[in-house]
Amino acid sequence: MITLTINGLEVEVEKGTTILEAAKSLGFPIPTLCYMEGLSPYGACRLCVVEIGEEPRSRLVTSCTYLCEEGLKVRTASQRVVKSRKMILELLLATSPQSKVIQDLASAHEIRQQRFKQEYEDCILCGLCVRMCDEQMGAKAIGFRGRGQNRTIGTPFDVKSEACRLCGGCMYVCPACQLRCTYNEPEKAICGACANLSPPCLEKDEYDDMMCYMDPCVACEIKKD
After folding, report:
1. In this structure, are residues 88 and 117 in contact, taking their beta carbons and an 8 Å threshold?
2. What is the pLDDT along the chain (225 residues), one digit of tens a residue?
3. Are the beta carbons of 119 and 94 closer than 8 angstroms?
4. Could you tell me where in the chain the CATH 3.30.70 domains are found?
């Protein structure tokens, strides 16, 4: 067992436990966006940052990927942590202002306005869709490509992937997808026959190549009749 201190409270956890898991066991809320149980932690969104160590040598780390250490001192809501989270949420709002998930997180952190120009790029590169396709579906139909400003998500060589299982999992876990956030029943909102319903997190020319189509929507069933 490993003993550490979180917000002044001492806790014992098993070796291999992340700070996020330890904090949750004590009831300390830590916001997450790219983290999902059942998928490997990625630490892309940086929302789950916490402060570890003693000042002036303390530092911020992603709690979903950082493993607990003996004697570690953690602060989950210090001034430095809160400031960092608010900055990240402002940037996320500028990238994907239509996301209900991001809007709710911003509201919970009392962000009423953001200082950055809205780009409407939608995809926040959280990697949830990639990990879902790989780790849960076992398809590996999509993945990251490019670097820096040119980093995107898509199929290899921009061609339709035969590995796609047409499960719709990538769309369902996407926090930037407006359809997933708008409809309570995504399977009735997404349809391969409805080009106008393509998720805003994907560019139109890539939609037909990589999107996992769901069953025909109600509107299309009516058209068939």
Report:
1. no
2. 999 999 999 999 999 999 999 999 999 999 999 999 999 999 999 999 999 999 899 999 999 999 999 999 999 999 999 999 999 999 999 988 888 899 999 999 998 877 887 776 678 999 999 999 999 999 898 899 889 888 888 888 877 778 887 777 887 888 887 544 444 444 444 444 443 344 444 454 544 444 444 344 444 444 444
3. yes
4. 128-224
- How far is residue 179 CA from its own chain's centroid? 16
- CA 53 distance to own-chain centroid: 27
Residues of the chain with CATH 3.10.20.740: 2-108
Residue 66 gets which letter from DSSP?
A: P
Asked whether the beta carbons of 33 and 101 are under 8 A apart, the reply is yes
Which amino acid would we find at residue 126?
A: C
What is the dotted CATH code of the domain comprising 2-108? 3.10.20.740
Q: Is the pTM of this model over 0.85?
A: no
Neighbouring CB atoms inside 10 A of 121's CB total 16
| SS3 track for 124-186 | CCCCHHHHHHHHHCCCCCCEEECCHHHCEEECHHHCCCCCCCCCCHHHHHCCCCHHHHHCCCH
Q: What angle do CA 172, 41, 20 make, to 5 degrees?
A: 110
CATH number of 128-224: 3.30.70
